[in-house]
Design brief:
- It contains nine helices and 19 strands.
- The strands form five sheets. Strands 1, 2, 3, 4, 5, 8 and 9 form a seven-stranded mixed β-sheet that branches. Strands 14, 15, 16, 17, 18 and 19 form a six-stranded mixed β-sheet that branches.
- Helix 3 runs antiparallel to helix 5 and helix 8 crosses helix 9.
- The longest helix is centred in the middle third of the chain and has 19 residues.
- The radius of gyration is 24 Å and the shape is globular.
- The two termini are 33 Å apart.
Length: 417
């Protein structure tokens, strides 16, 4: 089994500050630490996006049914503008959003092209005002609709170069910078793929703003399907039904991120950690507890509620430790350390049947497992693991980082986050 990838460096980790001295070094988790400046305010600037798209140094990350193009499991591969041109055309951003909406024809499949950002460490010659760097885009090459043939052609051309689209539910072996690029691309392509129809009125939507917004156009050159499913295209657009998303700001039109809490729960005497396991996990494999935040609920409240629902344990103080983007499909893992109340440590699983087991584990056993017993769910444990010992998530998972923090002195007398 190859060694796990290194974690990204925290931002400005070598700069001394009052906050670092008081709260400790910032923690950067896997899938964070992107080398790209997203310059999100320029996504609607068609002169900028068009120039970036066609620049000779621009890199295009291709995803086929969410599988990224790669040289090997640790390194992505990128296409050039010329190589994706048969699918996306010369410049899919030459029209403004207003013109795209006006010309909307739902019978035509438009290629999905995302602007990811600029790598400002690579002085490539691309400049737009004060902004310089190598542009990065992502393209969904999944064969579908009226562009199926063109997409298949691009896919086969990439395979002919010896490249592969790496399939699998999760990609946790990529080097850290490219893992962050992949996470951004995957999350946005997946969101677009899940929202071809409007959440307000059910009519087809249009991707705009370089892949980060979906619009419900007021008109459509294509007719509604007849009883046989046939669609006709007219010379003049038809008016579509009214839609709430066309008035004011609508959260149905923008990518979603689902906040999720994940917590290392420490006993009141600070000597043990609460771990749980689901029935589908490998033998002896445990992790920290986790769950979704609900509407109108603070992170601290979500931590206390989820722990009580899953294990019956009652919590006092909750402190946020670090966060991790999790693009499966669009979560933000909010890592916390929490402490049980003195009379709240009794475990009972009668509330929520999600866990098969939960138990308190001594720090020393966790230290041993962090050395020898970490792995992904479908992978064998590390070298030196003794059968029957505790198994834990790999360092690419925020659960691992939370456990590392706890057993390495997070709860010491020195103030630290």
């Amino acid at each position: 089994m190859p060694p796990p990838p290194a974690l990204p460096d925290p931002a400005h980790h070598d700069v001394d500050s009052m906050l670092s001295r008081k709260f400790g070094r910032e923690v950067a988790n896997y899938f964070s630490g992107s080398p790209l400046n997203r310059v999100s305010f320029l996504r609607a600037d068609h002169s900028f996006v068009s120039a970036a798209l066609t620049h000779p140094t621009t890199s295009f990350l291709l995803l086929n049914d969410l599988a990224p193009l790669a040289k090997d499991p640790s390194q992505l591969a990128y296409a050039t503008h010329k190589e994706v041109q048969p699918l996306i055309g010369e410049n899919p951003f030459e029209k403004t959003e207003e013109q795209l909406v006006k010309d909307y024809n739902s019978s035509i499949t438009l290629p999905l092209v995302l602007f990811l950002g600029l790598d400002e460490s690579k002085k490539s010659g691309f400049e737009h005002g004060i902004y310089k760097g190598t542009p990065y885009f992502a393209v969904d090459v999944t064969p579908k609709g009226t562009i199926e043939k063109q997409a298949v052609g691009v896919i086969e051309a990439m395979k002919a170069k010896g490249l592969t689209f790496v399939e699998g539910r999760m990609h946790m072996s990529l080097n850290a910078p490219e893992a962050a690029i992949y996470a951004q691309a995957r999350a946005l392509i997946d969101w677009n793929a899940r929202n071809p129809f409007c959440g307000g009125c059910g009519q087809p939507t249009l991707s705009t703003n370089a892949g980060t917004k979906r619009v419900c156009p007021p008109t459509d050159y294509a007719s509604l399907p007849n009883a046989q499913g046939a669609i006709t295209v007219s010379a003049t657009p038809r008016e579509r039904a009214a839609c709430v998303t066309r008035k004011g700001i609508s959260n149905l039109s923008f990518p979603r991120t689902d906040p999720t809490v994940i917590m290392a729960v420490v006993s009141h005497d600070s000597k043990r950690v609460l771990l749980g396991r689901q029935k589908r996990w490998p033998p002896y494999w445990y992790s920290t507890l986790a769950g979704f935040c609900e509407p109108a609920e603070s992170v601290e409240e979500a931590v206390r509620r989820e722990v009580w629902e899953e294990s019956g344990v009652l919590l006092g103080r909750v402190v946020i430790h670090s966060t991790q983007p999790w693009p499966y499909p669009a979560n933000l893992m909010i890592g916390a350390v929490a402490q049980a109340l003195p009379d709240g440590e009794t475990i009972h699983l009668e509330h929520d049947p999600e866990l098969e087991d939960a138990k308190w584990v001594e720090f020393e056993e966790i230290r041993e497992a962090l050395k020898f017993g970490t792995s992904g769910l479908g992978e064998p444990p590390g070298e030196g693991y003794k059968e029957g010992g505790l198994r834990l998530p790999p360092q690419t998972a925020i659960a691992n980082q939370l456990l590392q923090a706890v057993v390495e002195g997070f709860l010491g007398e020195q103030p630290r986050i």
